[in-house]
Specification:
Strands 1-2 form a two-stranded antiparallel ribbon. The protein is elongated and about 45 Å long. By secondary structure, the protein is mainly α. The chain is 40% helix and 9% strand. The termini are far apart.
């Protein structure tokens, strides 16, 4: 999943492939919202 130019991954486990995919998608979205994007070292404040 790519959000704001940042690639984010998630994992989901289930015997149903559709449910596992949905869980992985939601995990990736949660990770994107909780983990801040790395700062660009070339940008000065």
């Amino acid at each position: 999943l790519e959000i704001d130019g940042r690639r984010v991954t998630g994992r989901g486990v289930s015997v149903d492939v559709v449910e596992a995919s949905a869980r992985a998608y939601l995990a990736a979205i949660n990770r994107a919202l909780l983990v801040p994007a790395p700062r660009d070292p070339d940008v000065t404040p």
